[in-house]
Each structure stands twice: as C-alpha cells, then as structure tokens.
Amino acid sequence: MRKVSNVFKYVVLTGVTLIFIFPLIWVFYNSFKTNSELFENPWALPGSINFENYIYAWKQANIGQYFMNSIIVCVSALFLCLLLSTTAAFALTRLKWKLSNTAMMVFLVGMMIPIHSTLIPLFLMFSKAGIINSHLSLIIPYTTSGMPIAIFIMTGFLKSFPTEIEESAIIDGASMRTLFLRITIPIAKPSIATVAIYTFVSMWNELNYALVFLNDQSKMTLPIGLNSFKGQYSTNYVAMFAAVAITVLPSIIIFSVFNKQVIEGMTSGAVKG
With a threshold of 0.90, does the pTM exceed it? Predict the structure, then answer.
C-alpha cells in the first residue's frame, strides 16, 4: 500500500513539475524557429537548429547592453542588501539593546508596503537629487525593498542556533568584528544563499521601478528591453523568445548551483531540536 502511495505521489509531483516547466521549454525550442514556422505550427519542434534569433536579439535589439545593465544593477544592489541585512540580523539577534523589537517591527512593516505606493515619492526625490536615468536610481530602491524579507529570513535562521559558540569566542577575547566575520557569517551561509537567490531573482525581473526611473535606452534593464521586440504593426516573436531565454538563464543557473543551500536555509530555521 505504501509503495502504491509513493508511486502516486511521484506521478503527481512529476505532473505538477511538467506543468510549471513546459512554458519555459516551449519558449526555448520556439526561439530556434522562424516566425513563419511558429505561426504554421507553434507546438512542433524546429526544423533546424540555428542561432540567428539569439544573434539578432543580442546585437540588433541591444539585449547584450540591457543584460550588462541588469548585471551591474542587480549585483550592486544584492551586495548592499546582503551587507546591510546581515549586519542588521546580527544586531537584532546577538546584541541586546532596548529598541531591538521596535526595529524588527519597523522592518516587518516594510514588507507590507507595496512598491507602487513608493514610485511617485521616490521619483520626486530622485529628480531633485539628479539621479534619474542612472543605475543608482534602481540600486537604491532595489536594496531597500529587498532588506525587510532578507532580515526576516536571516533573523529566523540565527535565532534557531544556540549562542554558546559566540559566547565562548567572546570569553576567549574575540571582538565583535571577529565574531561577526569568523563565526556568524559561516553559520548563516545557508540563509544568506537563500536570501541572495530570492533577492536576485526579484531584482532581475523587476519592471515597475525601471519603467518609471529610466528613459535613457543605454541605461535600461532586461525587463524593459523585452518591449523593444514589439513594433507598432508587428512583433518579432521568435527573437523575443530568444531574448526571454537569455533573460531567464542566469536565474536558472544560480538556483541550480545553490539549490542545496536554499533548501537548507529554508528548513533549518523551522527545525527545533
């Protein structure tokens, strides 16, 4: 009976997995077709494998430039988000001060604020500061919007670990800097990997801030760049599919590499000894 139950479970999980990944597979193999092949039979495999759509998307449609802009913005914002969130989580869980609970509540409230309500105030502030149409106009909101959930995950992870190791290090004369860099950071690696992947994917696919703060084509990121395939009277669908494949590739690679750390980071904080 248990064997039948396990088989049924795997069949259901396989079916759900196929439902989620089939659209990506469909986009991928259609990116090798011509538009005429696509409209003739969108479900058939391509007659031949050619990379003309990818070359067109990368060079002619400036996807290469948009890709590099996304890399610059997301890596910079991710570094700042992880740096600030890790230090904040360390302060909230390992240092004893009166306003720690109040500070945690402020960060939790930040998770509830929709980004649409911040677009106009940020646009006015950035306009006065003269940073509209720059990478900085995306790095700042990406960093601040990613911090609340990052702090929430890291504090939950650190609270699940006993403090005896850190207390022993303090007794042996370790400074706060040593404690943070040599003990807390290695312990928190799974949660940092979880936060890094979640935050990177969110930043990589973000459209609202980029659409409002960027008008200069040389500064645009990938989500905006995908609109360049849509003309007034026609759309180059196969080239757009190639651009979508290029866009999702970094997220797939990063998640595949850090999959083990993500699962460990999501489950460790929930396991009680």
Answer: no
